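FAQ: What does the model actually see?

It sees only this:
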Amino acid sequence: MDNERRCPVCGIVVKGRSDKIFCSTKCRSIDQYENRQKTEAFYLKVDRQLKINRKLLKKYNRSGITTIRRSELITEGFDPQFFTHYWKNQKGDIYFFVYEYGFLNTVRNHKEKYVLVIWQEYMARP
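And it is asked to produce this:
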């Protein structure tokens, strides 16, 4: 019987309607719980990295604007792929923000650096 439908959770042959996926309510519940766990794990990973990024940007930007070597932040666990929003200035530079703390990737003296800034009210204007 090559056309046997098997439950994706336990592997038992599924009997009943042709669109039935699970062999029982218990297996359907287990599948939903496992999917929820995966979704929660992804959310927790993103949330954890945003918290790390914000903490590091805050730590290194006590004056409101500063420049730091990119490698220094990366070494401490900063991941520039995780940010909450961005702002583009009139020159076309794109600042990425983790809540109220932002960074601009730049090159100075042949070294990759970040210009760190704090969100300002004028940035909210279109």
